[in-house]
Design brief:
The chain has about 290 residues and is α+β, with helices and mostly antiparallel strands. The protein contains 12 helices and 10 strands. The radius of gyration is 20 Å and the shape is globular.
Length: about 290
């Protein structure tokens, strides 16, 4: 997924903060129903197996150069679909509840970013390019995270915590969002120190078909990106696989490791791996930033 540039991040942050302010939403948890009501958006749940849905929408829904009907035949699952001319969001009812929530916030952001609407209403040469589709999705992901965690509210709360897994669990309870989304928000929008996060399928479970590797997400704080650009997801995944043990739930491993920064120096990181029934979420924190 593409990185969102700084100027676009600032523009999205301003739009998110305005929505939260105008909707009177300050205290967590931020509920998607309140956002949809404020924006006058309708949300419906659908099944991609429903032939009526395909007959009604497939002629005008297109992702890249492929019609939705072709995507369905290829068994590619769409978590949600935005219909801009009807102010409606369709969410796949077969998705787990946390993914339905994420998809709802994600497509809501598509509706409020003015430069997105033009490309979803019509197919321009630029919008049909896969690279541009990737940029749009990255921007929607960035905005969805900000909207569901109350923008600056989450960062202010996170800064009052010690960077560790226990702090992330406490914020899960406050914001009532999934472990994965809270974990990602914490790494990217909390302390100004080198931190990295790895969301992976543990070595003791079978890898899902929709993942190319066991690593599903590799998250890095701004300081980590700046100081440790050479550290890869595969490098951290090998450590996690060696240092964790099978668990049904909870902490599956804690360890320290040395990582090399861009100046060739070795820095010590403390890592905690938490198993959430589906994924291993491993937090790496620089011991002496």
């Amino acid at each position: 997924m593409s990185e969102v540039d700084d100027s676009t991040r600032k523009e999205i942050d301003k739009i998110v903060e305005k929505i939260l302010k105008d909707a009177g939403l300050g205290d967590p948890p931020i509920q998607i129903a309140d956002i949809l009501e404020h924006l006058k958006l309708n949300r419906q749940f659908y099944s991609l197996d429903d032939p009526n849905l395909l007959r009604r929408f497939a002629h005008r829904l297109q992702i890249g150069k492929r019609k939705v009907v072709n995507i369905v035949r290829e068994k590619i699952r769409l978590a949600a679909v935005w219909l801009p001319d009807e102010k409606r969001i369709l969410v796949d009812e077969s998705q787990p509840k946390p993914k339905q929530v994420w998809a709802s916030f994600h497509d809501t952001i598509h509706t409020v970013l003015p430069w997105h609407k033009d490309f979803f209403l019509g197919d321009t040469a630029q919008s049909l390019e896969p690279e541009y589709q990737d940029i749009l999705e990255s921007e929607a992901n960035y905005g969805a995270s900000g909207l569901m965690f109350g923008g600056r509210i989450f960062s202010a709360q996170a800064l009052d915590t010690t960077p560790c897994w226990e702090s992330i669990e406490s914020l899960v309870k406050v914001h009532k969002k999934s472990y994965v989304t809270t974990f990602r928000r914490y790494v990217e929008h909390s302390h100004d120190r080198p931190m990295a996060g790895l969301v992976s399928t543990p070595w003791w479970m079978e890898k899902p078909e929709d993942q190319l590797t066991r690593c599903r997400h590799f998250i890095r704080s701004p300081r980590f990106l700046k100081e440790f650009p050479g550290i890869s997801a595969d490098q951290l995944l090998q450590l996690v696989n060696r240092k964790t043990r099978p668990r049904r739930w909870g902490i599956a491993g804690q360890f320290t490791t040395d990582l090399g920064n861009d100046r060739g120096e070795s820095r010590k990181f403390f890592a905690e791996a938490f198993f959430s029934h589906h994924y291993l979420l491993t937090l790496f924190v620089d011991v002496k930033p």
